[in-house]
Amino acid sequence: MQIGGILAYLVSFAIMATIYAVFSLGLNIQWGYTGLFNIGIAGFFAIGAYMSSLITMPKPSGTYAEYVDVLFALNLPFPIGLLGAGVVCGIIAYLIGIPTLKLGEDYLAIATIGIAETVRLIFNNEQWLANGPRGLAGLPQPLSGLVEARFYNYIYLMIVILILVILYLATERAIRSPWGRVLRAIREDEVSASMSGKKISSFKMQAFVFGAMVMGIGGALYAHYTKAISPDVFTPLYGTFIIWVMVIAGGSGNNKGVILGAFVVWAIWIGTQFITNFLPYTLKARAPYIRFLIIGILLEIILLYRPRGLLGEEKAVSRMME
Amino acid sequence: MLELFMYGIVLGSIISLGAIGITLVYGILRFGNFAHGDLMTTGAYIAFFFVTGPLNWVGIPDNMFGPFSFGWRMVIAFPLSMLSVGGVAILLDRILYQTLRNKEAGRVTLSMSALGASFIIRMGVLLIWGADYKFYKPGLIRPALELPAGIKIRPDQILILIVVAILVTAVHLFLKKSRMGKAMRATSDNMELARLSGIEIQKVIYYTWGIGGALAAAAGVLYGIDVQLHPGMGWNFLIPLFAAAILGGLGNVYGALVGGLVIGVVQQMSTAVLLPTYKPAVAFIIMIVLLLIRPQGIFGRSSR
Question: Model pTM?
Answer without folding.
Answer: 0.91
